[in-house]
Amino acid sequence: MSTKVRKCREPARVTLPVPEEEDGEAEGAEPQRRCRGWRGVNGGLEPPCQRAPPSPGPDASSEGSPSRWRTAGMRDKGRRQAVRGPAFMFGARGPSLTAEEERFLDAAEYGNIPVVRKMLEESQTLNVNCVDYMGQNALQLAVGNEHLEVTELLLKKENLARIGDALLLAISKGYVRIVEAILGHPGFAASRRLTLSPCEQELRDDDFYAYDEDGTRFSPDITPIILAAHCHKYEVVHLLLLKGARIERPHDYFCRCADCAEKQRLDAFSHSRSRINAYKGLASPAYLSLSSEDPVLTALELSNELAKLANIEKEFKNDYRKLSMQCKDFVVGVLDLCRDSEEVEAILNGDLESAEPLETHRHKASLSRVKLAIKYEVKKFVAHPNCQQQLLTIWYENLSGLREQTIAIKCLVVLVVALGLPFLAMGYWIAPCSRLGKILRSPFMKFVAHAASFIIFLGLLVFNASDRFEGITTLPNITVIDYPKQIFRVKTTQFTWTEMLIMVWVLGKPFKSSNFYFKK
Question: Which helix (H) or strand (E) is 299 found in, with range?
């Protein structure tokens, strides 16, 4: 028994005689079972006990000591754990890396520029696409740790893999300079690289956007510009737009084209999520402000489209409503940024390229964006203080002093305009460009004139119809009905002055409407 214990503890110093060979096999059964257990835990790697013992020599006792064997075993175990990482815990063999590749990946991860440059220039056997235990290559590690110089050195190498995933990683972290460096790579010379999604790249047997051997880092339908729009990276969106990248608007929900039908058949959920991701990018303030010539019009139309989709796709109703509100908030935010009346008027009218002075075309204000906001029920835009202040300025145009007057003065002005309307109309017809004409062209005076005109018309109708009841008289206990001749007219009589005024008013309405549409 003592021989067994000594043999297990000091295997290098024991010599067994030939007749005891069977006992030696029995004595080695227990170590063999331990070795098989080691293989099962460590993914099939050979344990230290299987190594050949050193040949006996003068210093055999020191080389084969148990402490030295234990130290070597722990060193090997630590190296395997560092290489495999999580794979060690699950009993799977990690990637096989050489010492040179380990050093290269460490230098790329920690930004050791001299080591990376030296290995790229001098080493002939280095694989620049080698991956660590997480499946990331040197480019991904350098970008993830924001090492611009290392990234630029790696991008000079040919046949570099996973450049698209490095771009997506840099966009998500907001590393603008690294994004600019990656976009300068020859792989992005064709704009199709930026417009095709990672899913479409995979269909072409291309791992350009692959994160590791299992797939992509983000959703397969996410393109670089969609990701930049989701992250609200204005500078990155601008760089991608200069490269020709665009977000394609999804097809109509009820579209039955071959592409939509195929996507719906393969995976309806992924198809719906891809539509939402695309609309998130389109509704991003970064993309709206940089990609559209008229961001306000684009945001208003997109908010209305998203509101309709919220009623159609009930499953994603909340998502579409949030995006619709995001577009409305963007329009309100644009109004907040206005610094003078000219900018506010440009937004409300949508006339962004008008070169005319403010005074010459103010009376031609169309307020097309305000009308569109009312149509799409964007209440925040219409009720915004800047919008209301501009509308009030247009309302009292050429009547700046009347705005600060009391209600009694305003009522007196309304009464004067109503009583002198015929004379005012005659004066405007004779001299439309005079001071009186400019005052009458203000929206406030137009409203008062139209209201007074309609009230006068109603009064003429009542006065003209009052003479039909002149022949009806009533006495106590007797009812006498006298039918005057004008009730049963036998022949046509001359028009009264009230009838002539009514006819003039009625004939003037079509003339006014036709003149309005002609000018419009």
Answer: helix 295-312
Q: Which long-range contacts (CB under 8 A, 24 or more apart) does 452-456 make?
A: 452/414, 452/417, 452/418, 452/421, 453/421, 453/505, 455/418, 456/418, 456/421, 456/505
**What pLDDT was estimated at residue 168?**
92
More confident residue, 26 or 345: 345
Confidence of residue 336 (pLDDT cuts 50, 70, 90): very high
DSSP state for residue 131 in the 8-state scheme: B
d(CA 213, CA 310): 37
For 157-180, what is each residue's pLDDT tens digit? 888 888 888 999 999 999 999 999
What are the Cα distances from residue 367, in Å, to 18, 126, 282, 332, 344?
109, 66, 25, 16, 11
Is the CB of residue 153 less than 8 Å from the CB of residue 182?
A: no
φ/ψ region of 430 (left if φ > 0, alpha if ψ in -120 to 50, else beta) reads alpha
Note whether 417 and 442 are within 8 A (CB): no
Spell out the domain ranges in the chain. Answer: 2-89, 293-395, 402-519
DSSP characters for 132-179? -TTS-BHHHHHHHTT-HHHHHHHHTSTT---HHHHHHHHHHHT-HHHH
Count other Cβ atoms within 10 Å, centred on residue 353. Answer: 7
pTM (2 d.p.)? 0.68
- The lowest-confidence range among 245-254, 258-267, 426-435 is 426-435
At 127, is the secondary structure helix, strand, or coil? Answer: coil
* Count of beta carbons in the 10 Å neighbourhood of residue 239: 19
- Which of 42-51, 222-231, 285-294, 439-448 has the weakest average pLDDT? 42-51
Q: Say if residue 385's pLDDT is above 90.
A: yes
How sure is the predictor about 476, in pLDDT bands with cuts at 50, 70 and 90?
Answer: low
Residues in the chain: 520
Containing 216, the helix (H) or strand (E) segment is strand 215-216
Which tokens is 340 given?
């003078």
With H, G, I as helix, E, B as strand and everything else as coil, classify residue 393. Answer: helix
Distance CA 205, CA 213 (A): 13
CA nearest to 501, candidates 469, 453, 467, 466 = 453
In angstroms, the Cα distances linking 213 to 93, 135, 199 are 15, 7, 14
